[in-house]
Specification:
two-stranded antiparallel ribbon
Amino acid sequence: SSLNIPLEEGITLNILYPHYSVEDMPKGANPNNNSIVCRLSFGEIDFLFMGDLEKEKELELVSMYGKQLESEVLKVGHHGSKTSSSEIFLDSVRPTYAVISCGRKNRFRHPAKSTLWKLKKRKYKSLRTDKQGSIEFITDGKRLLYKTFL
C-alpha cells in the first residue's frame, strides 16, 4: 500500500515505494532498488518520479498498482539506463512526456539507445536534460505545458 500526503488543496504526493522503513532496508540489497518512487497529482495531471528503480521492482509496482501508475509525465528511472524502463512498466504508465535527467557526455552514456527506442516506439515524447537543459512543467490541473532552459 502507499502513503498519501496532501500538500495543498487538490495536490497529493503519493509514496508508492519502498514499503519498508530505513531500519528495515534489506542488507546488501541493490541500492538502486531502495529508491523512493512517488506520484504527484494535481487535478487530472500526474507526475511519476522513478528514482533509480530497476526492472524487477518496476514489475512489482505494475503488479501492485497496474493502471493506477498512468501518468502524464514520467521521470524516467535511472537516467534512462538499460536497467530500467521495462516494456511492461512503460505500457502501464503510458506517459505523454518521458523526462530523462542525465548529464551531457556522461561517462555511463545515459540514456541507453534501447530505452530511447522503447519510448519512441510508443510515441512518448522524450525530454532530456543533456539536450534541452532544465525542464519546467506548468499545469492548472487540466492542461499541461512545458518550457526548457539551456
